[in-house]
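User: Please predict the structure of the protein below. I'd like the answer in C-alpha cell form so I can feed it into my own downstream comparison script.

Assistant: Understood. Taking the following sequence of 325 residues as input:
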Amino acid sequence: MLKAGIIGGAGYTAGELIRLLIHHPAVEIDFVYSTSNAGNKIYAVHQDLVGQTDQSFSSEINSDVDVVFLCLGHGNSTAFLQKNSFSTNTKIIDLSNDFRLNNDANFEGKEFVYGLPELNKDEIEKASNIANPGCFATAIQLALLPLAKEGILNTDIHINATTGATGAGVSPGATTHFAWRDNNFSTYKVFTHQHLGEIGETLESLQNGFDKDLIFIPNRGNFSRGIFASIYTDFEGKLEDAYALYKKFYEDAPYTHLSKNPVHLKQVVNTNNCFIHLHKHNNKLLITSAIDNLLKGASGQAIQNMNLIYGLEENLGLNLKSTYF
C-alpha cells in the first residue's frame, strides 16, 4: 500500500482527496496536516466523512511517505517546501499554481512536470514531482489541444467560462457568501486570469510559433461546483473533420469524452470526466467543455497523476458517478 500525506487538509480540494483516497485500493492515508485544525477529527470539518474515518488532523509531517499532496493556497507551496523536506523517494503533487509555468518548474533541484495526462502522460509516468493544472486551464486546454496538435489555431481564441463558488476556495470572501452569490452572476479577472500563462505555454508546445490572443472572460456562477467553458475560433474544415481530430486525439484518454449532443454540468459534476461538444457555424468552430472543478480540475486529476506515476490503472479509485438529479 502507498502511504499518502495531505498538506492543507481543511480546504475543498483536500476534502475531495480524502474522500477519494479513503476508498482507493492501493493507498493508505498516513497523515492530513492542518495548522488550524490539528487534533480535531477530520469528520468535524469534512462532515460527510462521519463513519468513514476516525483519523484526526495532524500537526506533524511524516517525511517518508510515498506521495504527498500539497493543497495550499497559491504561493504557499513554495514557502512550505522551503521549510519542510521529504525523502528522495517521496513524490510531490502540488495543486497550487506555484510550479506550473516553465520558469517555475525547477525548484531547489526538484523538476515539476505539468500534470495534464491527456498531454503529458509519458512524462508523468516518469516524474517525481507534478504541477497539477488549474481548473479553468484544464477545461480550456482539453477543448483546444487537438486543434493545436494539428497546428490550425491560426486566429484569436475567444473563451467564456463560468465556475462555481468552490473555485474560490473555502475561506469566505465578499463574492462567495450566499447572499451575494445566490441569484447572481459576474465577471472577474477579465483578460488577465492567472491560468492564461499555463494555457499559452501548452498551446505553444504543441503548435510551434503559436502567437494568437487568448481572449478569456471568466465568470462566477451561482452554483457550488463545476466549470462550463464556451470557446470559439476559426476552423476551415467540416464539423465531421473536427470530430475526427478530437476522437483521434482522445482515443486513449479515459476521462475526456466527445458528445454529439450539447453538454451541461450535471453530466460531469462529482466525476473526473471532461465532456466536449463541437458546433460549426460558418467558419467558426464552437467548442464547449464541462468539468467538475474540484475533481478533474483538481483532486481527481491529482489522483490520476499519482496512478500514472506508480504504474497503476489510470482510473483506479476514480470510477465516480454523476449525481444527475
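That's the full C-alpha cell string. The mean pLDDT is 94.
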